[in-house]
Amino acid sequence: MGGMNARAKVAGMLMRQGKREPLSALSLFIWAWPDGPAAMSERLAQLSASGFELAQRHSHRVSRVQEVANWREHWLTTPLPFATDGIVIRQAKEPAGAYWQPTQGTWVAAWKYEPVAQVAQVNGIHFSIGRSGKVSVVAELEPVKLDDKLVRRVNVGSVARWRRLDFTVGDQLLVSLAGQGIPRLDSVVWRGQDRTKPNPPMGNTIR
Question: How far, in Å, CA of 11 to CA of 41, rounded?
Answer without folding.
Answer: 33
